[in-house]
Amino acid sequence: MTDRQSIDREGVLLAAEALVRDRGPSALTMRKLAAELGAAVTAIYWHVGNREALLDELVQRTVREMGQIEARGSDPAARAESVALALRRKLRARPHLIALVHERGLTEVMMLPAQRALVHEAHAAGLRGAAAAEAVRVLQFHVVGFVLVERNRERAPRQRPGEPELWGAETAEQDPALAAALAGAPDPERLFELSTRALIASLWPRPVVGGQDGFRQGFPPPME
After folding, report:
1. CA nearest 114: which of 83, 74, 156?
2. What letter would DSSP give residue 126?
């Protein structure tokens, strides 16, 4: 076994984070962690304390990592969309760690940086007060709800009948392209982008064409 000088606190935290991320909190025991690192259990305790202290540190790391969202784009609506896309990616990448944060009552703290980024873009678009708050919350609820639906679909047992059987001959006669599309597997990436853009378009003022500082409310032109 490796002694405590051969590992450091950051290495222990990274290994613990990987265990929880890949296998869930129940997989994290001090013995398993020591085996992963090739270290003595006493060395793990020396660096990070007991299991609860280690879990608390993983929660704090997750909260900090979720706060590292940078808005990108040429206008407030595009930047708001980039925040939503980044938030979904981060939530999807660490479901077990997110669950730990939620169990410790820190979900609102974790979501605050993304919420502040959306508030900034709402203000940049000219929204104020209740309208800005509503736009931010709608988008935030959309992201979280979409991720929950994705997770539930992934964990659901095989459905009988499945979508191909449900969209059968009758629908195919009326609209064969629709039947073929609905019988196929959904594309979550595209669905999320389409739904996010539609929400932002309905709530975020868009720059007036040809104007410098003005904004107008409304949906973008239909997609071709």
Report:
1. 83
2. T
Q: Which amino acid is at 156?
A: A
Contact between residue 62 and residue 112 where contact means Cβ atoms under 8 Å apart = no
Q: How far apart are CA 119 and CA 116, in angstroms?
A: 5
Percent above pLDDT 70 for the chain: 85
Query: Helices 95-103 and 9-23: crossing angle, nearest 10°?
Result: 100
How many CA within 13 A on the CB side of residue 54? 25
Architecture of domain 4-49: Orthogonal Bundle (1.10)
How big is the chain, counted in residues? 224
Residues 98, 62 contacting (CB under 8 angstroms): yes
Question: For the whole model, what pTM was predicted?
Answer: 0.82
> Taking 70 as the threshold, does the pLDDT of residue 216 lie above it?
no
**183: which residues sit within 8 A by CB, 6+ positions away?**
163, 164, 166, 167
Give the residue carrying structure tokens 């590292």.
68
Beta bridge partners of residue 206, listed in sequence order: 216
Q: Rounded mean pLDDT of 26-53?
A: 92
Q: Are 34 and 51 in contact (CB under 8 A)?
A: no
User: Using CA atoms in the order 74, 77, 78, 80, what is the torsion angle rounded to 10 degrees?
Assistant: 120
Q: Are 68 and 93 in contact (CB under 8 A)?
A: no
